[in-house]
Amino acid sequence: MLLQEEQNVIQWLFQYGPLPKAQVIRLLHNKPPNTAEKIIRNLKKEHQITETDIGYLGLDSRTNPDQRLIQAIWVLLKFVDKVAPQAHYPASYPSQLFFLKENIGYEIAVLYDGEQYLTRLLQPQDSMKYILVVPHVSMIPTLFLPNAPCLFATLDFDGKEEPDVTFYTGKEDNSE
């Protein structure tokens, strides 16, 4: 019988596909990093999960990671202490991730340059908020925004394993 944390790791990898090991450790935020590492080691030892040659964890080493989803999870990790372990899951296109925080639903949509049109496909519902991840702040004014509260985010890896996540309100002022 697997521990709850082990079940959570398997569920996340089932839902999202391969993830960077650093993200899985951060998703286990209620455990010290050395305990999270032990959970991962045990799952690998029991052949429940595998590690790829690029340091990603997954259920099957042949599955390719979804880079948009991985970017969305970096944003989710800014709120992880306020989100239950099973209160986030893949969203409907064009969004990548849905999560519940304090009984409010959030969708994270990762947009690349030239994909401003994808925001027209968002279908806002009551009590829904959006976090739109863009490659640079200058893209924000070019977006068609849904009739729902929106927050914007950029990721800056700057040579690091984990990115700096910066949030904007849309007025190009940092609102983190």
Task: Characterize this entry briefly.
The chain has helices spanning 4-16, 21-27, 33-45, 67-76; strands at residues 19-20, 50-51, 56-58, 88-90, 97-101, 104-110, 128-133, 150-156, 164-168.
Annotated CATH architecture of the largest domain: 3-Layer(aba) Sandwich
User: What characterizes the major β-sheet?
Assistant: 6 strands, mixed
What portion of the residues fall into strands of 2 or more residues? 15-25%
Please give the number of β-strands: 9
Kindly state the percentage of residues in helix. Answer: 10-25%
SS element count, helices: 4
What is the CA–CA distance across the termini?
Answer: 41 Å
Strand order of the largest sheet: 4-5-6-7-8-9
Poorly predicted ranges: 172-176
- Looking at how many chains there are and whether they match, the oligomeric state comes to single chain
Element pattern in H and E: HEHHEEHEEEEEE
Annotated CATH topology of the largest domain = Trna Endonuclease, Chain: A, domain 1
Rounded average pLDDT: 92
- The whole-angstrom Rg is 17 Å
Quickly count the domains. Answer: 2
Helix/strand structural class: alpha+beta
Sum up the overall morphology in one term.
Answer: globular
Query: Which CATH top level class of the largest domain fits?
Result: Alpha Beta
Sum up the structure in keywords.
176 residues; alpha+beta; Arc Repressor Mutant, subunit A; Trna Endonuclease, Chain: A, domain 1; 2 domains; six-stranded mixed sheet; three-stranded antiparallel sheet; 9 strands; 24% helix; globular; disordered C terminus
